[in-house]
C-alpha cells in the first residue's frame, strides 16, 4: 500500500480553523465519554472519517462535519453567530436572484 499525501491550497486560517474544530470535536467526544466507534455510528459515518475530522482534515465533506457536530449536540453552539446589521439589511432588501458577470 502506498502512502499518498494530499495537498491543499487552502488559506492558512482555514487550515487552522479546521484543526481547531477537530480538537473541539475530540474534546466534546471525550467529555461525553463516547468512543470513536460509538460517535461515528451515531452520526452515520465511518470511524476513519471521524478520525480525519478530529485531525481537522480539509478533505472530509461538510456533511460529515455537520453530522458529527449534530451527534455531539454542539452543532448550534458551533454555528451560532449573530448577523451584523449590514447582513440583516441585505437579507431584508430585495436581492437579485442571480449575480451575472460580463
Please outline what is shown here.
20% of the residues are buried. The protein is an all-alpha fold. Helix content is 60%, strand content 0%.
Q: What percent of residues are in strands?
A: under 5%
Total strands: 0
Largest sheet: none
Kindly report the CATH topology.
434 Repressor (Amino-terminal Domain)
Shape descriptor reads extended
The tally of helices reads: 6
- CATH architecture heading: Orthogonal Bundle
Q: What is the number of independent domains?
A: 1
Radius of gyration: 18 Å
Q: SSE order in H/E notation?
A: HHHHHH
First CA to last CA: what distance?
48 Å
Helix vs. strand class? mainly alpha
CATH top level is: Mainly Alpha
- CATH homologous superfamily name? lambda repressor-like DNA-binding domains
Protein name: XRE family transcriptional regulator
InterPro entries: Cro/C1-type_HTH (IPR001387), Lambda_DNA-bd_dom_sf (IPR010982)
GO molecular function: DNA binding
Pfam family, one: HTH_19
